[in-house]
Amino acid sequence: MRECCEKCLEYNVSCPIENSNCRHWIDYEDDSNCVLIAVDNNENDHMTLREVSKRVGVSFVRIKQIQTAAIKKLITYQKKSKSFE
Fold this sequence. Notes:
Blueprint: H1 3-11, H2 35-41, H3 49-56, H4 60-83
């Protein structure tokens, strides 16, 4: 975990909006405005795509598109790695 995330957790504060250029910043106070903290907080719980879309402020359709693209990349990577074995 990044040093800034550890400090947010240690002092129980949210990442400031000035840090919104950070690629891990999200507008969600419950998880200290940090994707990395959100993942740690939900490590054992599965989230639906609708919950993810609400959490990151993106439409459900866009989350579904991202999921589909990620699965496609994983399958392609898996096929390539098997061909090198």
